[in-house]
Specification:
The chain is mainly α and 43 residues long. Helices cover 86% and strands 0% of the residues.
Length: 43
């Protein structure tokens, strides 16, 4: 779980670096990550 959080943190950081003023993009990334977490916990 720790590795997944680190990967997610790096991903968010990378997205924020690419789009510093685009908050919608960050929200979409968070929603995608939440869906990914839910699919992982179901397994």
């Amino acid at each position: 779980m720790v590795n997944n959080k680190i990967i997610f943190g790096v991903l968010l950081l990378f997205v924020s670096l690419l789009n510093p003023g685009c908050k919608h993009q960050q929200q979409d990334t968070k929603q995608l990550y939440l869906k990914y977490l839910k699919s992982r916990t179901k397994r």
